[in-house]
Every structure is written in structure tokens, then in C-alpha cells.
Amino acid sequence: AQTVTQSQPEMSVQEAETVTLSCTYDTSESDYYLFWYKQPPSRQMILVIRQEAYKQQNATENRFSVNFQKAAKSFSLKISDSQLGDAAMYFCAYRTSQGGSEKLVFGKGTKLTVNP
Amino acid sequence: EPEVTQTPSHQVTQMGQEVILRCVPISNHLYFYWYRQILGQKVEFLVSFYNNEISEKSEIFDDQFSVERPDGSNFTLKIRSTKLEDSAMYFCASSGSGSMNTEAFFGQGTRLTVV
Question: B3 near B20, Cβ under 8 Å?
Fold first, then answer.
């Protein structure tokens, strides 16, 4: 079974600075999807960014980018120019690309605090 | 922008009672899911539903739970005889089909409190 590990329970960053959240995963599959979800205090799950494993290019969405290292099974999230609104729980998630299983497997999350 | 809608936002129920959590997935999506998040813990998969039947379920999803798509728009999670440990945030999600089925969109969640 696939597992997702987020080794940083909490992180903090100064406003306008850059922060990197770590995620590693374990799988025997060669093709899959990886996601970062943001959960603000409202507790809604909001998709931040996704990466297809077959793509070598790292995904980017405005201030959010990932460092996808397939061989190392690492998928870190970099937030540039951090804003107060970025404060939230961030969850890394894995999904197989094989048919028959569409579920997401989540890590335990990293709580990000943004200091003014 | 289309979104997944869940009702109610907060449900308080007495232990042993039955609850039904409701969800309206995004209209052209074909895969539907329920996830659970106990306070302070990670989000856990409960069940996925496709083509009017359960396609996958976790070990958490035992006989106490059931899902239904009673009409063309709603997707419900029923919890029979609730227990204190069922208190959690329940998230509904939906995703598309084929090449569009790469990401799940989540509702805002229903906070279930069992007393």
C-alpha cells in the first residue's frame, strides 16, 4: 500500500519570504499523481498544485512550485513571497493512475504559520 | 466556478442515532468520494462511488456506513447508530472521468459531533 510522509508537523515563515514543505511517499508504481492541498481554518480542502509522475517538469502555480524527485520519491512544495493568507495546514497526497482505485492517500499534514 | 456543496455544515447528534450527510457533486463528474478527518489528524479515505456502485472502500467503512445516490444530483453518506468516535469532519469530493479524472474537488465539509 502507498504511504505519504510529511516529516514537518509545523513550519513558520516570515511574510514575503520563501518556505519549503517536505513530502516523501512510498510506492511501487511508475505512474501516479501527486497533490498538495491547503486546509485553512475554515477546514475546506483546496487544491494547490498537482504533478503527474510521468512529467519531468516540475509543476508551478503562481507563487507555488514543487520539486519532484521521482527516484527519491520526494515531492516538496515551495511557497514564494509568503502571504498571511497562506497560513494553513498543507497536506501532500498521492493517487494511483491505474484504473480501479481513485482514492487519495494523504500525509499527516504540515501546519504553516506566516509571521507578519 | 462549479463546486461541491455539502449540507449541513455542522450536525450534532446523540450517540446511537442515525445521521445522513448530504453532498451535491460537480454536475459532470462521475466519481464521488467520502473522506473523514478526525480533529487534528490526517484525512482518511472512506469510500468511492462510480457508476451507481461502490468502487472501493476502506476498512473504516464497515456495515455502520452506507452511501447512496438517490437522484441525479445528490450523494449521501448514512451513518447508522453513531458512536462517539464518529465525531469528525466529513468531506465529500468528486472528480471527472477519463483524462479529466486527475484531481478531486472537495466540499467544505460537514462537522459531525456525536454526544
Answer: no
Q: Which residue in B42, B45, B111 is closest to A108 by CB distance?
A: B42
- With contact defined as beta carbons under 8 Å apart, do B49 and B67 qualify? yes
Q: What is the DSSP letter of B113?
A: E
Q: In chain B, which residues have their Cβ closer than 8 Å to the Cβ of A10?
A: none
pLDDT bin (cut points 50, 70, 90) of residue A100 is low
Are B102 and A50 inside 8 Å of each other by CB? yes
- DSSP state at residue A78: E
B17 and B78 Cβ atoms separated by less than 8 Å: no
Residues 6+ apart with CB under 8 A from B1: none
Q: How far away is chain A from the Cα of B61, in angstroms, using its nearest Cα?
A: 14
CA A53/CA A36 separation, integer angstroms = 14
C-alpha closest to that of B36 among B46, B51, B21, B26 = B46
A1 CA: distance to closest CA in chain B (Å): 12
* Burial B16-26, CB ≥16 within 10 A → b, else e: eeebebbbbbb
pLDDT tens track for A26-80: 998 888 999 999 999 888 889 999 999 988 899 999 999 999 999 999 999 999 9
